[in-house]
Structure formats: C-alpha cells, structure tokens
Amino acid sequence: MKYSSEHHNWDMTVMASSRLVTLGENIEKNDYSFSAFTGSMLLAVAGLESFLNSIAHTLSINDSEFPYIEFDRKGIVEKLDFLLDKFSISLNKGERPYQTIKKAVTWRNSVVHSKPFYVEETMIEPRQDIRKLPKQYKSNDNKYPPYENLVSKENADRFNRDIIKIIESIKSISGLNPRAQCSYTIT
C-alpha cells in the first residue's frame, strides 16, 4: 500500500480568526474581548500567509520553474504581490482590501517585534490624555507602534473579512484551492 498526503492549515487558521471575532463581540469583559480580538487579528494574518504559501507550494508541484525558494524568502505583502501578478489580479493598492492587508501585516509585525518604550517623568494636567505623551523607545526603533493601539472589534472584523476577500479572489481566479488531503493506493 502506498500513502501520500498534504497538510494545508490556512483554512482552519482563518476559521479560528472568524470565530474569535464572534467570541470577542459576545464577551462582556473588555480584557477578554481584547484577547479575542488580538487573537483574531493575528490569526487572520497568519492564515493569509499560510494560504499564500499553500498556493505557492501547489504551483511548484505543477511547475518545476516556479521560484519557490525565492518566494518563501519574501514578506507577506511581497508574496501577495507576486501571486496577484502571477494570476493577473488587479487590485487598487490604495483601497481596501489591499490597504487592510498592508495595515494588518504592519500590525502583526508590531506584535511579533514589539519593543519596550517609556515616558520620562513629566508634568501633566489632571485630564490630559497620557496616550498622547511623547514615547521614547529603548531601541530607538519606533517602526512598530504598540500593537494594542489598533486592537478593536472593527479592526478584527476588517482584517478577517478583507483577508477572506483576498483569499477568495485568488482561489477563484487561479482555480486552486489547496486543502489537507491524503491518498492510499493498494498495490
């Protein structure tokens, strides 16, 4: 008997993102909804990258000339751009869903590359919004603002929906829909 399989988990990851949005909407405690929305946003971006990698893997099986190693070294937005070009999918890069993807990837990077910051002792007015005080970053790298500033129901929902739109567009136009599968051949 011969056995072969492929494991693509992008669909489970995107589904988990969708469920966490719903969970966050239905939780009354802010700290729990914050966690649900953070998880949803992070899983949406992870699901997109997993999907893009699955499409590239499928292409590389059918086309020995496909530059999989080069593709694998790219960032998420570059992988997306590569596949959009490959399938001649034109998106207005100044609008949704493309702008959401760029925002989602930058946000994801702010989570995984988070750096500490501090505010030196300063005089403030009793009702001053402390979030507007100048922050200093120990690493002198304020490329990624604190991720928690963008965690919200609206952003979790937008990240999830726009990533699903991109995935559905690529699936529809490419005719590819990589899923987990296995086969047995009795010999």
Termini gap:
5 Å
Tally of alpha and pi helices = 6
Rg estimate, integer Å:
20 Å
State the major sheet: 2 strands, antiparallel
The helix fraction, in percent, is 40-55%
From the spread of the alpha carbons, the general shape counts as: elongated
Protein name: Cthe-2314-like HEPN domain-containing protein
Organism: Thiomicrorhabdus lithotrophica
Care to describe what's here?
By secondary structure, the chain is mainly α. The protein has one domain (2-180). Helices cover 55% and strands 7% of the residues. The protein is built from six helices and four strands, in the order βαααααββαβ. The strands form two sheets. A two-stranded antiparallel ribbon has the order 1-4. Strands 2-3 form a two-stranded antiparallel ribbon. It is elongated, with a radius of gyration of 20 Å. The N and C termini lie close together (5 Å). This is Cthe-2314-like HEPN domain-containing protein. It comes from Thiomicrorhabdus lithotrophica.
What can be said about this structure in brief?
The chain is mainly alpha-helical and 187 residues long. It contains six helices and four strands; from the N terminus they run βαααααββαβ. It is elongated and about 80 Å long.
